[in-house]
Amino acid sequence: MPDASGTDGTSLRRCVLAVSVLDDIDLHPGDDGVRIPDHEGVHVTWPMIGQVVGDLPPESPVARHRVATLLRLHRMVGELGSEARPAFREALRLVALPPGHIDHLGPDWVIQTLPGGALELGYGVYGLLDEPDRCVPLAPSLAARVGIGGRDSWAALREYTERMGALAAARLERDGRQGVIRPVGGCDVLALLTSRTLRRHLAEGDGVGMRAVASPTRQRAWYDLRNLDPSFVQAAWLLTDEADRGLEIPLLVTPDEVAVPRQPRRGRHASL
Hints:
Layout: H1 6-22, E1 28-30, E2 33-35, E3 43-44, H2 46-53, H3 61-80, H4 84-91, E4 92-97, E5 112-113, E6 120-126, E7 135-137, H5 140-145, H6 150-175, E8 180-181, H7 189-192, H8 196-203, E9 211-217, E10 220-222, H9 230-239, E11 251-253, E12 258-259
Antiparallel strand pairs: 1-2, 2-3, 4-6, 5-6, 6-7, 8-10, 9-10, 9-11, 11-12
């Protein structure tokens, strides 16, 4: 992991300073990491910052977004003091993201990959930052700081998400064929797709064991695609803020997995 010296360390410093200016976060970078004034004990080391940046250019917009989220959550730990652990545990949610998503914090964040490979799962927290309806990933270093981790914590989180998926399925059954999945219990629609109950409800709805589900935003998904303009999905994805985006193309959902359909090859050999 980078420290405060060398080219990587210089780039990380510039990234942190850009976050301070653009996201209005008061902080003091030093050789051993970043400290946040007025919050004694809030110390974010350079390896912690390097972990969420990963292989990205440290001065890229995606890296700045991830570092800003990390520092804001650390600042919240300082603000909450002794109440930080219970607050973070109450806000804990499962986050499901496609690889390469702006909020995806890299391989160290991933706890599980959902069968099918479209979504990778990790810890997140709901409603703790400025946008009360958003769930943001929890970096491994910060999860350890607030006492979150281990097999039991993850099993409990999966069980909670499964129950929320069952509620979503019941809502779809009750509301008839509106064709829209919405968040339930602080779980966005990508997280809800990790629920086998919801996947089974969707996949078996047409009697074929598979359903195409469009989720261009993490806040809505559509599964009655016969009545949806194909250009709508891509347009909705493009018009959604990056952090709130889902996937640009529809997913294939079965009771057992969520997959990105294989795209047809282009060019003169495409039909071979």
